[in-house]
Specification:
Number of helices: 22
Oligomer: single chain
Helix content: 25-40%
Bound molecules: iron/sulfur cluster
Largest sheet: 5 strands, mixed
Distance between the termini: 22 Å
Radius of gyration: 23 Å
């Protein structure tokens, strides 16, 4: 066992209101610079929809992430030879049209216009060319027509659905949408790290944050094409690639990352996970539908004496172990099993997890009042968004994974309804608990964590012990293109 600590997160999608406060908090702090105008380290998408950059999930188009070749993992964009061939022209890169042409408005025209009878207007101007432009795309353009066929029909996940399922989705009275906030997943097997010809990207050994060394980056942009989530970006003014840094300077000062702190819906949770780095390769090699479960398996119980002994033997500080024991992320992912990784089939082992939105029809209008569905669990099958779509997003196509999460979330609601409204039969509540596989106390704990918690419970920033930084044990150059982490030996610490 090679036990590592990872600062991980959970985003609870039922709580996201799509306000974009997170995106603005990040933009103002990190990417409000020339050359970074189009960059949104944190962006919020509307699903079903095409996303930012458009169709980022379609790896036939972008060739991001990993694929299994025989018994080995390989970067989908190709090995060393392919990288050299693409240094001067990389066809897998998103273009400015795939993101959007950044724009501003000629605000001065509002105040400097001569007196007249017409209302002055501020025309849109391109932040690239400075010329007037017609705005035809933005970082969440899909939102204006959310749920409609205009964008949703082009969602790579919707294209996979049967004609019948698509028709169900686009029936006007069943139209549905939800928000999907996205940042870098600070993956355990990051394709960006493995793809960089300059060795500029690295995963901090002590907390798993993935960073780009700006001094070493030579702007080859292989990370941009290799990251299947399109979460590294090229700064056209600096000539370097950049990405979400999980606000490590804020965390080192004990503060939550800006997007977490600013989140209006309080959907974001942060905490340490302990995991077995020896299992990375084996986990990433699993079949698509097994990946979510295998990733859960890789995460270790921070109270298990065996795990603790191995962690201490590897030099892990007591403060980090304590932080892992208080981690809300551990509860969501392992203890309660209600948070899943986004697109695990990309095989980067993302360390940001999502509570999927609970979309089944739980009640309908009946003679002016709300009538509960006769059987909540039957209603699961009548989800407004086909389960297959959600399974494609969060479980490598494994519907059972999503169903298991829904059973637990529905059980929380049933138990709460029984307590607050009092119109649920005890037998119904007991059945819900049994199907969820959780007892009453746990369901109550989920309810409290997802509704009533203060920031100090939602966000457990661990002590960032930079003076005890863990060095990578393997030569990342040697493992390039076949391993993202490149750090599976016993950790060497500086002190
Ligand atoms: S591969 Fe993972 S760690 Fe690297 S930029 Fe993409 S999401 Fe972040
Ligand atoms: S700030 Fe929170 S609620 Fe608002 S869009 Fe971002 S993640 Fe969603």
């Amino acid at each position: 066992m090679d036990i590592r600590a990872q600062v991980s997160s959970v985003f609870h999608l039922d709580k996201c209101i799509g306000c974009h406060t997170c995106s603005i908090a990040c933009k103002n702090l990190w990417t409000d610079r020339r050359g970074n105008e189009y960059m949104w380290w944190n962006n919020v998408e509307t699903k079903p929809g095409t996303g930012y950059p458009t169709k980022w999930e379609d790896q036939e188009k972008y060739n991001g992430g990993w694929e299994r070749v025989g018994t080995q993992l390989r970067l989908k964009q190709g090995g060393k030879a392919a990288t050299i061939g693409k240094i001067f022209h990389n066809p897998d890169l998103p273009t400015m049209d795939d993101y959007y042409e950044p724009f501003t408005y000629k605000y001065a025209d509002l105040t400097n216009a001569p007196a007249g009878t017409d209302q002055p207007t501020a025309r849109a101007v391109s932040m690239v060319s400075g010329k007037p432009m017609k705005i035809e795309a933005g970082p969440n353009w899909d939102d204006d027509l959310s749920g409609s066929t205009v964008y949703a029909a082009n969602d790579p996940g919707v294209i996979e659905l049967s004609a019948e399922q698509q028709q169900q989705l686009f029936t006007i009275e069943k139209m549905v949408m939800f928000h999907l906030p996205r940042i870098c997943n600070h993956c355990s097997n990051p394709a960006c790290v493995a793809s960089c010809p300059s060795g500029a990207i690295y995963k901090r050994g002590e907390d798993g944050i993935v960073l780009i060394n700006q001094d070493k980056c030579r702007g080859w942009r292989m990370c941009v094409s290799a990251c299947p989530y399109k979460k590294t970006y090229y700064g056209w003014s600096s000539g370097k690639s950049e990405k979400c840094i999980l606000c490590f300077p804020r965390q080192e000062a004990g503060e939550a990352p800006a997007c977490f702190h600013a989140c209006v819906g309080r959907i974001r949770y942060l905490g340490v996970l302990l995991y077995d780095a020896d299992k990375i390769e084996e986990t990433a090699m699993k079949a698509d539908g097994e990946l979510a479960a295998a990733q859960r398996e890789m995460i270790l119980d921070p109270f298990d004496p065996q795990v603790l002994a191995a962690a201490r033997k590897g030099g892990m500080a007591e403060q980090i172990i304590k932080a892992a024991q208080k981690s809300p992320v551990y509860k969501f992912v392992k203890e309660w099993g209600i948070a899943l990784p986004l697109h695990p089939e990309f095989r980067t082992l993302p360390m940001l997890f999502y509570v999927p939105p609970l979309l089944p029809v739980l009640s309908t209008e009946h003679q002016g009042t709300q009538k509960l569905a006769d059987d909540f669990f039957t209603s699961l099958e009548q989800a407004r968004l086909p389960l297959m779509y959600l399974a494609g997003l969060f479980a490598g196509g494994n519907e059972e994974e999503v169903k298991a999460v829904y059973r637990r979330l529905i059980a929380v609601r049933i138990q709460r309804r029984a307590e607050t409204v009092g119109d649920m039969a005890e037998a119904e509540v007991a059945k819900a608990r049994e199907l969820a596989g959780l007892d009453s106390k746990t369901l109550d704990a989920i309810y409290r964590m997802t509704s009533l918690t203060r920031i100090k419970e939602r966000i457990q920033v661990p002590p960032m012990l930079r003076e005890q930084a863990v060095e990578a044990g393997m030569d990342p150059e040697e493992y390039k293109q076949s391993m993202g982490f490149g750090s599976r030996k016993a950790p060497k610490r500086r002190w």
